[in-house]
Specification:
The chain is α/β, with parallel strands linked by helices and 217 residues long. The chain has helices spanning 2-10, 29-38, 51-60, 87-99, 112-121, 131-134, 140-157, 173-177, 189-198, 200-216; strands at residues 16-19, 43-47, 64-67, 103-108, 125-129, 161-165, 184-186.
Amino acid sequence: PVSAASTAALAGADGNTAHLREDRRHITDGDIHRLMERLEIPLNLEMAATEEMLEIALRHRPHAACIVPEKREERTTEGGLDAAGQHNHLAYYVDQLRGANIRVSLFIEPDPAQVEAAIRLGAPVVEFHTRRYAHAQGGARPDGLRRLADAAALAAKNGIEPHAGHGLTFANVQPVAAIPQLAELNIGHFLVGEAIFTGFEASVSEMRRLMDEARDV
């Protein structure tokens, strides 16, 4: 993970995201320690809203912590947090992370009710789950993009910095990158898969080029 993070930085990444899951299936506690020790660009720690993960975040003090839903049986994160329905549970974690000067983010669906919940919780950042857009076929894709754009505008209007990620590829990233309010895209799985054919540095570099090109249009 440290080597990959360093290569990503050289290829144009502004930050790295690492999801320390409850079952440690992706990375380990030692990886977080090494990333914090050696990484020269910001680390965004994805974490479930549990006491164990909060203790780890408070110990390492990453630049950012994104609270995500987590189910043991899922392959990867399948949807956004229900911030509206879990307000009382999430409020404690948001307050603790903010109190430690960690930029806390909520991984939510691009839905007005979830954005409004993030506003009430005082989250400075939200990351929109882009799976519905990324996996849409035909006429459903413009609708998914519209939902993302509307949610990003609503968040920005209310002082929340909007990010997005999940399922983004070379083929679908540019319409999302072109949404002016989105300040950050988090892309991982596709880049690692593409790296099998082109190498990791070339994979990250091409994604960065496409994102920048979309902003220049």
